[in-house]
Amino acid sequence: MGVAVGVLFTGALSRLFGGQPEKALPPHAGDLAARQRALSAGREVTELFGEIVPGTQVGSCTVRSLHARVAGAIPVVLATSAGATFQVDVMRRGCEDDGVKCVASSASLAVYVCNGGDGAHATDEEQGLGAMALGAALAARVANGAPVPPLLTLRERAERFPTGVLRVRV
After folding, report:
1. What's the distance, CA 147 to chain centroid?
2. Predicted model pTM
3. Which of 102, 123, 153, 155 has the most CB atoms in a 10 Å sphere around its CB?
């Protein structure tokens, strides 16, 4: 089963957004180093993701790293069960006429796999399922009151950053 993905631009963007968190994550959320890496993503990311920190299973994938907002999106690095890493971007959900469907969406969020595709080809199944599991986990957090930081839709990002968007190291 293939999963369609969104257009994501490659390139570099030097400015990162995000602040320092004010509260620590619960002790059962993974090892100390993983919690510290999650906290470095900034308060707005840690408030949205909560206990979804590096080491958390989402479907058959594992969260490797969370990053501060970049160009209106939150980059997240996941790893498949075989250890292959890939990036997904968490963005604000846009209109269906944005031209590209996301892998997972909720009332307010959309998750795109960053694989250089244009939405016309199938994504690796495990990567797509991992992105969908992350999307479902984030939708549950938002439904339970987690704040959604200011994010861009895919169309807004393409308009504001026409030369490309940062791909984090995976």
Report:
1. 15
2. 0.74
3. 102
